[in-house]
Design goal:
single chain, 402 residues, alpha/beta, eight-stranded mixed sheet, 11 helices, binds iron/sulfur cluster
């Protein structure tokens, strides 16, 4: 089933796979589990069957069962959409889940190649499989076969005779380079997951690379984490591309030279807080760091939402802070420690000295308020951030020095 999407950065969702397994703390509040649970009871038996068996109730609440449903009948849906769209692939699963066979992923890629009018947004937390698969000649061969099969099959819906002839007479070579209409991304929720997944993304062949830092549950420094004693232990080139020398080339005079090249970098950063029951608060400084680092390196930045927690206190019609607003709030330290109301009664409440001993400078503590997602909005320091990546020529990783 595809749907117009309420997600700010996409037009439509396309979900040929349903079901998943949690892999990291960012999955704890997975909205797809709640959606799947509701849809298993959908009055339309086709919809209910698509979600059947994917969720169950445990002693800790709803969770995935680990069953993944492959919906082959949904694969050709984008062929019918004639208007160019931004399409979020697999909003109800992870395309690189280990239960999804290589051949099925190849069929998804074949459909993306056959519809260059659309821009596809793939987001994964399975960075290892993504890197291995997308860099392998075996996978490219699978994609080419899947694409040829789709074109040759007279029953493939959504392909006109003209399009079929075009594809058959002009051999499609999308898979010799990364798909130009695919924005490949990883979800990162804190520095640990950023350190794992972003390098893997940069080592994967892709035309556009992006990260979704949502739900942001801890600080992320895209320039490389700061050392407590000052400086950066490890400087990264995630936002600028690592400079280096490419493969040797022979000049007309027979000289062998290595051209100077800039390696892959992130082309887009999306960030946001968590929403839904049990949502964890986001510190405004975490978002400011991402925004400022992107601005500094001219990487497009989008702030999607505050989610359940916002630094703006709820106001009444007269513009006054509603009574009891502090009771709706928590004090959040810059490292993610949450102090419940009363824990830190400034300036010298019962746990204030404890917070200072733990190294939380006063400036790093902030008050955030529980709000409805719509009321919390998506303004950061008085403005929205709605930037998108400009497609760039595909990188050939083989030409870049790591
Ligand atoms: S990877 Fe995505 S879909 Fe899967 S459990 Fe985590 S948040 Fe949910």
């Amino acid at each position: 089933m595809s749907a117009r999407s309420a997600i700010e950065w996409t037009d439509k969702t396309w979900s040929p796979v349903i079901g998943c397994t949690k892999v990291s703390p960012g999955c704890d509040g997975c909205y797809a589990i709640r959606t799947a649970n509701v849809r298993t009871q959908h009055p339309n038996p086709k919809v209910a069957a698509a979600f059947a068996g994917t969720v169950h109730r445990t002693e800790h609440g709803l969770d995935w069962t680990g069953q993944v449903n492959l919906l082959a009948e949904r694969l050709t849906e984008p062929l019918h959409w004639r208007t160019p769209l931004k399409v979020f692939v697999n909003s109800q699963s992870d395309l690189f889940h280990d239960q999804v066979p290589d051949e099925f992923i190849a069929r998804v890629f074949a459909v993306m190649a056959l519809t260059p009018r659309h821009t596809y947004q793939v987001l994964t937390k399975r960075h290892g499989r993504m890197r291995t698969l997308l860099n392998s000649p075996h996978f490219r061969a699978l994609c080419e076969t899947a694409e040829a099969d789709l074109v040759a099959d007279e029953t493939t819906p959504g392909l006109s005779r003209y399009e079929r002839e075009q594809y058959q007479t002009r051999w499609w070579s999308s898979f010799t380079e990364p798909l130009a209409n695919l924005w490949l991304g990883v979800s990162v929720e804190d520095q640990k997951t950023a350190d794992l997944r972003i390098p893997a993304l940069l080592e994967t062949r892709a035309a556009v690379r992006w990260i979704s830092a949502e739900p942001l549950i801890g600080p992320i420094d895209l320039f490389g984490p700061l050392h407590p004693l000052g400086g950066r232990r490890k400087l990264t080139y995630w936002l600028t591309g690592r400079p280096g020398f490419g493969e040797p080339v022979k000049t007309a005079t027979g000289l062998e030279m290595r051209p100077f090249v800039i390696g892959p970098r992130l082309d887009w950063v999306v960030a946001g807080g968590e929403s839904g029951p049990g949502a964890r608060p986001v510190h405004p400084d975490w978002l400011r760091t991402l925004r400022d680092q992107c601005a500094h390196t001219r990487v497009p930045f989008q702030f999607k939402q505050w989610g359940r927690w916002s630094p703006d206190a709820p106001l009444d019609r007269e513009g006054r802070v509603v009574r009891g607003a502090r009771g709706l709030g928590v004090t959040l330290a810059n490292d993610g420690t949450v102090y419940a109301p009363g824990d830190l009664a400034y300036p010298d409440g019962p746990r204030y000295s404890e917070a200072i001993r733990a190294g939380h400078a006063k400036a790093s503590l902030t008050q955030v308020y529980s709000r409805r997602k719509e009321a919390a909005g998506r303004e950061l320091d008085g403005r929205t951030h709605d930037e998108y990546p400009a497609p760039r020529p595909a990188w050939s990783w083989a030409e870049v020095v790591r």
